[in-house]
TrEMBL record:
Lineage, opening ranks: Eukaryota, Fungi, Dikarya, Basidiomycota, Pucciniomycotina
Superkingdom of origin: Eukaryota
Name of the protein described by the UniProt record: Secreted protein
Alphabetical UniProt keywords: Signal
Signal peptide range in chain numbering: 1-34
């Protein structure tokens, strides 16, 4: 009789095993329609199909570039993000439009040293120069990528 009770208790535990496996598996799966807002930073990995999307100062995710679109123009593809009225004081360039950017870093609180209230620093892939693009007068300069295929 003792042996029968042991088997019955074991079979009850085994009956719940599939449910436990399903619950543990679901906890590891990212939702299909999850979107990551790449704010404050976005770093393109040249020559690769992935980019690094910073979702906070401490957390970054690796995303497929073709899943990234501009937040303000979500019907436009990756690579169509544009910043205007940009400057590089060391190179003596002002009023530049950067549309071939590889990286951006948003500084919404600005920079006291350079007198910017809020701006985004962007790296132009063609000129290989960093530009500061002020938010003042150019609300589109607050644009960011949002990506859906990330891990």
């Amino acid at each position: 009789m003792f042996l029968m009770n042991c088997f019955r208790k074991a079979s009850i535990g085994l009956a719940f095993l599939p449910y436990l496996l399903v619950i543990l598996h679901l906890a590891q799966v990212t939702p299909v329609d999850a979107r990551w807002q790449c704010m404050p930073h976005f770093d393109d990995q040249v020559g690769q199909q992935t980019a690094i999307c910073w979702v906070s100062e401490q957390k970054k995710v690796l995303c497929q570039k073709n899943s990234c679109v501009p937040f303000y123009n979500q019907n436009r593809p990756f690579g169509s993000l544009t910043f205007v009225g940009c400057e590089n004081s060391k190179a003596g360039k002002t009023g530049v439009t950067v549309s071939n950017l590889r990286n951006y870093h948003h500084y919404p609180n600005g920079d006291e040293q350079n007198g910017h209230k809020g701006y985004v620093a962007v790296f132009d892939g063609i000129s290989k120069l960093w530009y500061n693009c002020a938010y003042d007068g150019y609300p589109d300069n607050m644009n960011v990528y949002i990506c859906s295929s990330c891990k």
